[in-house]
Specification:
The protein has two helices and four strands. By secondary structure, it is an alpha+beta fold. The structure holds zinc ion.
């Protein structure tokens, strides 16, 4: 287990399809791990309300795992 579910870091590598980040950018990850990105809530920008969202502190043991 790695403690912490809201983390910050620095981009060290960027995939070819990533357009909004570049190397050395400072980034943060909140408590939410994922969502479906297809339901009404997700499409409306409210992924935190998605019925399929997963949180880091519940389904995973910390943000770095
Ligand atoms: Zn959704």
């Amino acid at each position: 287990m790695v403690a912490g579910y809201e983390v910050i870091g620095e981009v060290v590598e960027v995939g070819t399809q990533v357009k909004h980040l570049q190397k050395s950018d400072r980034v943060g990850v909140g408590w939410q791990r994922s969502a479906c990105l297809e339901c009404r809530d997700c499409l409306g920008g409210n992924e935190n309300l998605c019925n399929q969202n997963q949180v880091l502190y519940h389904v995973r043991w910390g943000a770095f795992v």
